[in-house]
Amino acid sequence: MSEFTPPAQPIGGGGASGPRADFGVRFVAYLIDVVILAVVQFILAAILGVAGRGLGLLVTLGYLTYFEGSPSGQTPGKKAMNIRVIDFQTGGELGYGKALIRQIMRFVSGIVCLLGYLWMLWDKEKQTWHDKVAASVVVPTSAYPVAAWPG
User: Fold this and answer.
1) CA distance 26 to 6
2) Count of CB atoms within 10 A of residue 28's CB?
3) pTM: predicted TM-score of the whole model, two decimal places
4) How far apart (Å, rounded) are the C-alpha atoms in residues 96 and 113?
5) Cβ-count burial of 138 within 10 angstroms (0-12 exposed, 13-18 middle, 19+ buried)?
6) Is the pLDDT of residue 75 over 60?
7) Is it the case that residue 54 has pLDDT exceeding 50?
8) Which residue intervals of the chain are DSSP H helices?
9) Among 65, 43, 64, which Cα is nearest to 55's?
10) Residue ranges of the domains in the chain?
11) pLDDT at residue 134, rounded to an integer
12) How confident is the model at residue 150 (pLDDT cuts 50, 70, 90)?
């Protein structure tokens, strides 16, 4: 195994091991992505009917996995809000495998009265359940810059 040197943490970080994106910023980024995906799903449902709904679900899964798994770790909503998803252990990109796991776990996070999403409000690393399962964190780009989007 190769040794990994974690990235230097910014001075005066806002979280337990570095700055983290706040709930409100993450929520607005999520809303932006929901609007984009709702338009796509509406169009697919209008053209293909019930089959369009199933295809819309796959498009949503692909959209979130592609953007969050890319080197930038940013969906268009996250880009607009200057936040990104990174690997908690390495501080680097999440990768497509972990991004897919994170997206599947999003459904579980919402099942119990959105408790999995709200978990970040009292978690020291501001992680949701889907962050914990995928070993990811959402951070501000001011502390963890993006080289290129989508990467």
Assistant:
1) 24
2) 15
3) 0.86
4) 28
5) buried
6) yes
7) yes
8) 23-48, 50-69, 76-80, 96-111, 115-118, 129-134
9) 43
10) 23-140
11) 97
12) confident
pLDDT at residue 7, as a whole number:
52
> Within a 10 A sphere around the Cβ of 121, how many other Cβ atoms?
10
Integer Cα distance of 42 and 84 in angstroms: 27
- 77: nearest Cα among 57, 52, 60: 60
Decide if pLDDT at 27 tops 50: yes
pLDDT bucket at 18, cuts 50 / 70 / 90:
confident
Query: Which amino acid belongs to residue 26?
Result: R
- Among the listed residues 143, 142, 138, the one whose alpha carbon sits nearest the alpha carbon of residue 67: 138
Cα separation, 52 vs 73, in Å, equals 27
